[in-house]
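Retro notes
What went well: the complex prediction finally ran end to end.
Inputs used:
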Amino acid sequence: MTRYAVTGCAGFIGSHLTEALLDRGHEVVGVDSFTAYYARERKESNLSSIRDAAGFTLIEDDLSTRPLMPLLSGVDGVFHLAAQAGVRDSWGDGFVAYVRDNLHATQRVFQAAAESGVRVVFASSSSVYGDAESYPTHEDVRPLPLSPYGVTKLACEHLAQSYVAGMGLDVVGMRYFSVYGPRQRPDMAFQRVIAALLDGRPFPLLGTGRQVRDFTYVGDVVAATLSAMELGRPGRIYNVGGGSPTSLLDAIHICERITGRQAILDRRPVARGDARRTSADVSRIASELAWRPRTTLAEGLAVQVDWALRHADQLAASGA
Ligand code: NAD
């Protein structure tokens, strides 16, 4: 049995990853501070199937302040997913939380992991690319983030390289591309589209809807992240993309077909910091980690809609 720490375990992706580790018979020490970015009830619900599982310990605390060495004692690897996610709130006064929960918390995790000699697999983002110089975008393309959020994620990647060079940290970074599926964060597009369709409410569409994203199903993201812990090359960064970039409008049409309802689009100006297009070159992760995306957008959205239908009351109560 192996014992892992998962930061951000109550979040969207972290809760799926924790579940997968427990299913494989591992022990998990989960850490989450239940930030107020979205409702605590949503995060409690994310944990509902694992909270009482044998082998799971939940520590509610803030990575930017709590002593981390005791947390890593007896741990074989750290999955560091905790962060202040989301592009739009990273402007203005919101930036303080991004510096604390992304940069400072990550520096503390890297420091403690380096001192403990423990591997870290951490979540970066396609946001580091901005409007990339080429598509599909290879990891070696120069990152040029368009948002303060993307800047903090890129800074975490640079920090990782500093800890590799200065303290011999064993670290692998994962650039996730627009992750979706059950428990998706309530600020993310599909969750809002599906909720609007099911309630017959207008969906505030930011921009033309022609922005293209390499949407990636959460189960595929979990598989990539597990492979990175096992097989990832030290110091490497990997793209984790769904493989069929799709415009937001086309994705909305898929949701319409699945729900049998027509979306009411409330057109709004484009959001600051949103890239026009993302598209992952996944040749590196395919050859080094034998990973490829397995879930088509239509399949993954059908699962997300089904989940949203089964949790409709709860989602409405927590403002999703
Ligand atoms: P999420 O907000 O659902 O989960 C993040 C969790 O981290 C939250 O539960 C939050 O309470 C916790 N957290 C934040 N700051 C903390 C701190 N200082 N100490 C302890 N816990 C803290 O977000 P998510 O969508 O699951 O994203 C997970 C990771 O993947 C993040 O690093 C995010 O930047 C990255 N990512 C996500 C996507 C996506 O499409 N969802 C895309 C690219 C990258």
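What we learned: The first helix runs from residue 12 to 23.
What to try next: split runs per interface for comparison.
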